[in-house]
Design goal:
Chain B: It comes from Phycicoccus endophyticus. The complex is a heterodimer of chains A (575) and B (92). By secondary structure, chain A is an all-alpha fold. Helices cover 71% and strands 1% of the residues of chain A. With 92 residues, chain B is mainly alpha-helical. The chains are: A mainly alpha (575), B mainly alpha (92). Chains A and B meet through helix 5, helix 9, helix 10, helix 12 and helix 22 of A and helix 1, helix 2, strand 2 and helix 3 of B.
């Protein structure tokens, strides 16, 4: 076993034991604890849990790689702005009001504010969005285990499933929340240490957010030499309009993701819900402002170390990642990725862009940039192990949050509200736990047979969330006249149009150019606008909501206990 | 709160939201995308300014926007006597 493997094993065993211990300490026995941790999580802890829940395998493992290699550099900004900007919408438009409403799930809000059919549509949308998203997490777990512990993907995913199963089924939201607080600490330390070390080493500035400015000129010059558009140049791959559409889809999707919104129900009060949003974005911003610097430093180092070097002289990280097939030659005609080879026979390996006379000979998988960054930067083995543990923390924390949404949708919104309204607490908990277990198995299967590469799949979930939930949640709070039929049709039309467009344009299914060159990742914005328009138009031609419902909407706008919200929370039907 | 106070509270809340959301759109869609070329003419700490907004500045401003919102809403709640105390839990 190499040094790196030993250290990885140490950190993985250490962190996993910690998660299990915490989960055991915070096990629950009632539904309020299982779904929303009894609504008693303090704001900073809730913020850290939201951040861990939010920052998935895609954020931790793929984000820096996408910024560095999926485009020239600037093009990756859509993810940086998109995945943080949504929190402003959440904090201002949704979190305080949904917390005042005080139920368990998004379908709960939809069902109570609108009607039972709308609740059902919301349940289906929540489950679809969550499964699309969770598949990416399990695939991320597989990547880490394969590379660092030398076990195959299936074993890796099964180990991950077993851990999540233990703490999510036992502790529900309470167990998940406190585990996520720990997972946030692990993942942020694992992300920041190598970034600070590399920035200090290369530029002498220990703050990567500042240090990264020092190397941009060199990186720009190097990319020009290699025939790639400059790192900081705008709109070389993605047009201005598409940058706007994709960023917006990610932002509005963030504000419509069921597993994020549900976290605000766990806050102690309306005020605590606002503070949770602030803490969450603060914790997220620590990683999201570091990611672009990791991208730039790694890219510069990779160009320097690899381009123009002969295969025999490659650094050791290059050889190890090439051996697991994550550094390869350019795609062959049949779509397979052959091993790196000196194709033009000039004695060295070339990394070049479209504008160069020399053909490119290397493809680097986006998912390895962060995992390989300590090795690329020449940092010692314990740090490599820590990064692996951090990546697992990111994937597992997000997976568990999503699984809880699926489980509570089935147990609360379907079983309790539709099938057996007289179910006891015990029965509901049992159904919740069984649903959770089933969801874990499905997620594991999707992780072993992933439907695409991690971040791309996740990016689609945002489009679907933006097109289905965001408009009807906002209108439900800010427009008393919004009716059940309006919301229902808005959701259905928005969701179906967006799904159809995605199936039509994604390479593996339809592979069409689409309309006006709008990419599938940006179409969520269009779907959202369609949803808004349909909801408003149908609401205007249908009968107004009851005066009591309008009064309830009025009351959720103010903090503090008010009569109608209290009555509603106790289960009075307001029609 | 009586109806008048409610209307006033809500109007102030909406105004605050509108101002913050305009800034939100200006730093991300504005500085980071629509006007990025013009801003890139200016360099600061090695960063072309438009690029900096797209990868750093907008995120920092987002955090500040929520901080301002939380702070102003706390004051508004106190002004209208609807402030909350920790430990107040109401769940079904």
């Amino acid at each position: 076993m190499s040094d790196i493997q030993t250290w990885t094993l140490v950190f993985v065993v250490l962190t996993f034991s910690l998660y299990i211990y915490i989960a055991y300490r915070s096990r629950v026995s009632d539904t309020a604890g299982f779904y929303v941790a009894g609504g008693g999580i303090p704001a900073p802890a809730n913020g850290a849990a939201i951040a861990a829940d939010w920052m998935s395998a895609a954020s931790f493992i793929s984000l820096a790689g996408i910024v560095a290699f999926a485009g020239n550099g600037y093009a990756g900004s859509v993810y940086l702005m998109g995945w943080t900007g949504g929190y402003v919408l959440l904090a201002l438009l949704l979190a305080p009001y949904l917390r005042k409403f005080g139920k368990y799930t998004i379908p709960d809000f939809v069902g109570d504010r609108y009607n039972e059919t709308a609740r059902l549509v919301a349940v289906v949308a929540a489950i679809v969005v969550s499964f699309v998203y969770v598949a990416g997490q399990m695939a991320g777990v597989g990547v880490v285990f394969t590379r660092f512990l030398n076990v195959n993907t299936t074993t890796g995913v099964v180990i991950g499933m077993a851990i999540v199963f233990f703490y999510a089924v036992l502790g529900g939201m309470k167990g998940i929340t406190w585990t996520q607080v720990t997972q946030y600490s692990v993942l942020i330390v694992a992300y920041l240490i190598p970034a600070v070390a590399v920035s200090q080493k290369v530029t002498g500035v220990p703050l990567p957010q500042i240090g990264f400015g020092r190397i941009l000129e060199e990186l720009n010059a190097l990319q020009t030499d290699l025939g790639i558009a400059q790192y900081t140049e705008a709109f070389t791959q993605t047009s201005r309009a598409n940058m706007v559409l994709i960023t917006a889809a990610l932002m509005f999707g963030t504000a419509g993701l069921p597993h994020v919104i549900v976290r605000f129900y766990t806050a102690k009060s309306v005020r605590a819900a606002r503070f949770s949003a602030l803490w969450a974005l603060f914790f997220i911003a620590l990683l999201y402002t570091t990611a672009p610097s990791v991208a730039a430093f790694s890219k510069l180092q990779i160009f320097k170390d690899v381009s123009g070097t002969s295969l025999a002289d490659m650094p050791s990280w290059f050889t190890t990642w090439a051996s697991v097939g994550l550094i390869t030659g350019p795609a062959a005609a049949d779509g397979t990725m052959p091993a790196v080879a000196d194709l033009n026979g000039n004695g060295v390996i070339d990394i070049t862009g479209a504008a160069s006379d020399v053909a490119n000979e290397v493809t680097i998988n986006n998912d390895i940039i962060v995992l390989a960054s300590p090795e690329i930067g020449g940092l010692p083995a314990p740090i490599v192990g820590l990064v692996a543990a951090g990546a697992l923390a990111a994937a597992l924390s997000t997976a568990s949050g999503l699984l809880l949404v699926i489980s509570s949708s089935v147990a609360n919104d379907v079983y309790y509200k539709k099938i057996n309204p007289r179910a006891s607490e015990k029965q509901q908990l049992l159904v919740g736990r069984v649903a959770m277990a089933a969801a874990i198995v499905v997620a594991g299967y999707l992780g072993i047979n992933p439907p695409g590469f991690v971040a791309q799949v996740v990016a689609l979930a945002f489009g679907l969330a933006a097109a289905s939930f965001f408009p009807i949640l906002v209108l439900g709070i800010f427009w008393k006249r919004c009716t059940a039929k309006g919301a229902m049709w808005g959701m259905i039309v928005g969701l179906l149009t967006t799904m159809a467009y995605m199936l039509w344009t994604i390479d593996i299914y339809g592979n069409s150019e689409g309309i006006w060159g709008i990419p599938e990742t940006g179409f969520g914005t269009v779907g959202m606008v369609i949803n808004f328009v349909v909801t408003v138009l149908v609401s205007l031609v249908t009968e107004k909501p009851s005066p009591q419902m309008q009064e309830l909407v009025e009351e959720i706008r103010y903090p503090g206990r008010t009569a109608l919200v209290a009555a509603h929370a106790e289960g009075t039907d307001l029609g | 709160m009586d109806d008048n106070a409610r209307r006033e509270y809500w109007r102030k809340n909406l105004t605050l939201m509108a101002v913050l959301l305009v800034i939100w759109a200006l730093v991300s869609f504005g500085a980071g995308i629509l006007f990025v070329d013009a801003l890139n003419e200016v360099t600061f700490l090695g960063f072309p300014l438009g690029f900096w907004f797209a990868q750093q500045g907008s995120i920092i401003v987002f955090v500040i926007l929520i901080a301002v919102y939380v702070w102003r809403m706390d004051r508004l709640d106190a002004e209208y006597g609807v402030e909350e105390y920790e430990g107040e839990v109401h769940h079904s």
